[in-house]
Amino acid sequence: MLVVKGLHAFYGKSHILHGIDLSIERGEIVSLLGRNGTGRSTLVKALIGLVSRTGSVRFNEAETIRMAAFRIARLGIGYVPENRDVFPTLTVRQNLVLGEKPGRPPGRWQLDEMFDFFPRLKERENTPAGFLSGGEQQMLTLCRTLMGNPDFIMIDEPTEGVAPKIVAQIRDLLLEVKRRQVSVLLIEQKLDIALDLCNRLYLMGHGEIVFEGTAAQLSRNPDLQKEWLEV
């Protein structure tokens, strides 16, 4: 589904990513691990076309490296940013409806389904999104992205700063996303969640991939964890 080769990314003259290679198959959850500042968020921004980049990013055989971000999104890629980016003056319902993408096939996800996954959003469907708590905004951003019927979704720190109950709801939703054959690239600081959910993982350090494998393989390598994950 997604094949990345020799990806470099830049902020102005700052060279952040150094030749990233990775791939994601249909229906996989792939975790992207690493300390803060290693380039994980830059990588997902590069995949969606939000930063200057070179190399090759192929999605369903289409080369996207020179496409604008909105055209990449229309291919069926969703992005849930770390800062959530809700429309604060619009209601919860209006935010969700705006997530629908014209021209996409009939959605796997319906509005009522989003409310079933997160009943709190149903309770607040007529509330401006700017009045929601951080956890509620995270629910909303996830659901708004799914309303666009993506085939592949990139999620940056979905459980950061949210209550344990919401963390459990987000985990259940991600498992349902996988069940419906939507691929996920997950950036997650909570190592237990990232390892529990993923089929495979990539570990980043200094803007490069330093390890690729399974959660079991990583758990058998404490030296690798100490070098690239422990603070």
Give the number of helices.
10
Report the mean per-residue pLDDT as an integer: 93
Spatial strand arrangement across the major sheet: 6-7-8-3-9-10
Radius of gyration from the alpha-carbon trace, in angstroms: 17 Å
Low-pLDDT runs of 5+ residues are: none
Which descriptor suits the 3D outline?
globular
Largest sheet: 6 strands, mixed
Q: Report helical residue fraction.
A: 25-40%
Content of β-strand: 25-35%
Your description of this structure?
The protein is 35% helix and 27% strand. The protein is an alpha/beta fold and 231 residues long. The strands form 2 sheets. The chain has a 6-stranded mixed sheet with strand order 6-7-8-3-9-10, sandwiched between helices. A 4-stranded antiparallel sheet has the order 2-1-4-5, covered by helices on one side. A hairpin with a 2-residue loop joins β9 and β10 (208-213). α3 (92-98) packs parallel to α6. The longest helix has 16 residues, at 164-179. The radius of gyration is 17 Å and the shape is globular.
Q: How does the SSE layout of this entry go?
A:
Elements: E1 2-11, E2 14-24, E3 29-33, H1 40-48, E4 52-59, E5 62-63, H2 69-74, E6 77-80, H3 92-98, H4 111-117, H5 119-123, H6 134-146, E7 152-156, H7 164-179, E8 183-187, H8 191-197, E9 200-205, E10 208-213, H9 215-219, H10 222-228
Parallel strand pairs: 3-8, 3-9, 6-7, 7-8
Antiparallel strand pairs: 1-2, 1-4, 4-5, 9-10
Helix pairs in contact: 3-6
Task: Provide a compact summary of the structure.
With 231 residues, this protein is α/β, with parallel strands linked by helices. The chain contains ten helices and ten strands.
